[in-house]
Amino acid sequence: MKRVVLDRVTCEGHGMCEVAAPAYFELDDEGALTVLEPQISTDDESRVQEAVRSCPVGALRLEA
Its biological function (predicted)? Predict the structure, then answer.
């Protein structure tokens, strides 16, 4: 099972990941991102991969 990792220093709070995979990412009112579920189910893997690719600053990555 893959896992999503957030680089909080790099994240600028654009929220593209939240749009792509709202069950996994949540942006608060101050622009801070929370990874709601770091372990990715196989059913959601393509959705989370899209969220990772959509990050304009590369603050997200997948690990095996």
Answer: Ferredoxins are iron-sulfur proteins that transfer electrons in a wide variety of metabolic reactions.
- Whether residue 22 contacts residue 47, with contact meaning beta carbons closer than 8 Å, is answered with no
Domains of the chain (ranges; CATH) run 3-63 (3.30.70.20)
The Cα–Cα gap between 25 and 57 comes to: 16
Please state the φ and ψ torsions of residue 62, each to the nearest 5 degrees: -105, 140
For 13-49, what is each residue's pLDDT tens digit? 999 999 999 999 999 999 999 999 999 999 999 999 9
23-56 core/surface letters (b: 16 or more CB in 10 A; e: else): ebbebeeeeebebeeeebeeebeeebbebbebbe
29 Cβ neighbours under 8 A, 6+ residues apart: none
